[in-house]
Predict the 3D structure of the following.
Amino acid sequence: MRSIRRFSVLSATAVAILAFAVSARGGDGAPDAAGSTGATPPQEITAIDFDRASFGASTTVDNKWFPLKPGTQLVYRGTTEGEKIAHRVVFTVTDLTKEIDGVRSVVLWDRDYSAGELVEAEIAFFAQDDRGNVWQLGEYPEEYEDGEIVKSPFWVHGLQRARAGLTMRAVARTGTSSYSLGWGPAVGFNDRAKVLRTGQKTCVPRGCYSNVLVTDEFNPDEPGKHQLKYYARGVGNVRVGWSGKNEETKETLVLIAVNRLGAKAMAAARAAARKLEASAYVRRKAYGQTPPLEH
């Protein structure tokens, strides 16, 4: 995810959503539940919560905390504990879409550079339901060493028992339960998030923001490790931090630029995303059960 998820480095046989066990729901219509283990899927993602019929305008992602307008590019710089090498993450909203289990999603193209070298790239898929909740439906990442692919741990909703997860609630409130960011048992993806604070202020190279939302992301199978994300209205993620006695990488990221891409840059983004998907079709047989990206 990468997609600004777990920055170790942002963060799958086709089946329909089953009527999973129903659990408590927040007043904003978003899922609420306790944590789960990697062997057991989160209980709050039910057929009621993730209902294909509730995604009437799924590619219009205008959630105030996580807007995804095609042509938007966010650039971050960061560090990890003990690492003095320059680190840069580029997060691009393409004008491509992908249908997953009957829901059309927005395609993001993410790149992670270390000392100027591309070490990871991915495409990730997001959709907004009619309540305004933003869901992630999957991701296909590639990790590189010396220009060669060394890992591609993908998960996509409906394949290999994977399930979509909630990225951002329509109404984010403190005091609510944690929620699943997605479940990819084939790759050990079991991250969750909880609204930690609201009404905060933070300054990054891009500027200073008030009324900031802070979420705490964690994996219940890895206690004592937390990633904090700071969201500004109308912008999205502006800072990434950490907490927890067992957090090892202690990675931080700050937003340094928000770009609007022109026609030439958008064409290049489409080509790069399609190249990643072509690789996915070759490297991961299960991915071949999904339809291709569309423009």
Remarks:
- The helical segments are 263-283.
- The domain at 52-287 is CATH 2.40.360 (YmcC-like fold).
